[in-house]
Amino acid sequence: MKRNTFLAMLLLGLFFWASCTPKVKEPIVTTKPKKEIVKELDPNGCIRFDELGIEKADRVTDNYNLYRDRIKEKDFKKAYPRWKDVYQNAPKTNGRIDYVFRDGLKIYTDFIENTTDTILQAKYVDTMAMIYEKALICFPEKKSYYLSKQGYEYFYKYKNRVTDEEIYSMLKTAVEADGNESRVSTIIPLSSLNYRLYSEEKIGIEDAKTVMENVNKIVKHNVENTINKKEKNAWTQVEQYTLELSDRYENSQGFYDCDYFITKHYSAYESNPDDCEVIEDLYRKLKRSGCEKENPKLVALADAYRSKCRTVNPDLLCGKEALENDQFSKAIECYERYVSSADNPEQKATFLLRIAKIHYAHTRQYSKARAAAQDAMKYKSNWGEPLVLIGKLYASSGSLCGPGTGFDSQVVTWVAIDKWNEAKRIDSSVSSEANNLIGRYEKYMPSKADIFSRPDIKEGSTFKVKCWIQETTKVRAAQ
Known about the structure:
Elements: H1 2-20, H2 35-41, H3 54-72, H4 76-89, H5 99-113, H6 118-138, H7 143-156, H8 164-178, H9 184-199, H10 205-225, H11 229-249, H12 258-271, H13 276-288, H14 296-308, H15 314-324, H16 328-341, H17 345-363, H18 366-378, H19 385-395, H20 398-401, H21 407-410, H22 412-426, H23 431-441, H24 448-452, E1 462-465, E2 471-474
Antiparallel strand pairs: 1-2
């Protein structure tokens, strides 16, 4: 009896002790939805707020609003844990807004920029790749946005993380989908990869031509129709790059047909029927482009060569044959031997300039091209043609000295125009070509807004263009 009484009193005491002890709030345990539940809601895990239970939906929605505030404040570290909860449980939010994916990319970009640990950076890039992949599943209607953004970042920021072919596929798909509404930032990396992969024989000629024709059409449309001044300026800069790239394709056998070269270049021969370099160069282009042997213009060029330009000098023959077989380094060696042994200063000048043009058009070694052009001028005074070429070298360096668009890429036009102005000042025979080039490139100079936004420069002040160019010029704005 006493034992039962004691137990009863003990239990009663414990009851009162428990009721008087302050209660500790239990932590909310966040668990991942079971696989079968995810599958039942959406096989891709693209869950919305309204597909969660009430309690969970409230928590995830609160976390969404709180992390979005942190994103606006650019406090990505504090935003991360709440963003992660939303991304894992309801990445599709209300079914229309894709901020969770865009914000995730911002967060991991910030993480990459704020660590020097290359292993950690690589892991962050891999995580971003997974975010891109899931974004494409959850928001297929926004595929072109994510592909263009991912391709751009891989091309400029995270090099060697994926192959050129993969980046090319992303950008090409995005541009095909967007057409004239393509993002201006997409065009230069796509065009650059198109040329690189074609040159390396990783894509065929028809694919390369189709992409470039589409790109040129898009750029032309936006240059002509964009109203916003800042956007128009960006498209104009892109146009500069794509036009230069189109010129490069002229040196790729079979890219352009016979009619293209006749239309674009035959007038140069008609204007200079005694210029052996023009005759040889155009004959080679027509022949390589597939012109029929009976084509009257090809026949005329062959006759002109035989009557005016035939040579027995072994070094000149060596250079001619090497060019015909696309052996550009060998051609340069042959012509250099000729220059070193020739007595005639004008002949030295002529073939030094030819060496410069081969470096410009084929080897793409711009410093060597400039050096050869400058040497050519030593043997022939008041000669504007080497200066015209040096201007072209500078104008073609936008993507070498900068990203292809923007101030760093545009400043090359200043020194290019300087050279063309100097060329026509000392040699009236090149005035027409120099004026055409100046007219073409003046619109690619930095805008007044670009210059105004840089407190260290102003219109009329001196400016040194760096990169391989290293020349001082004067600041001026596109009109």
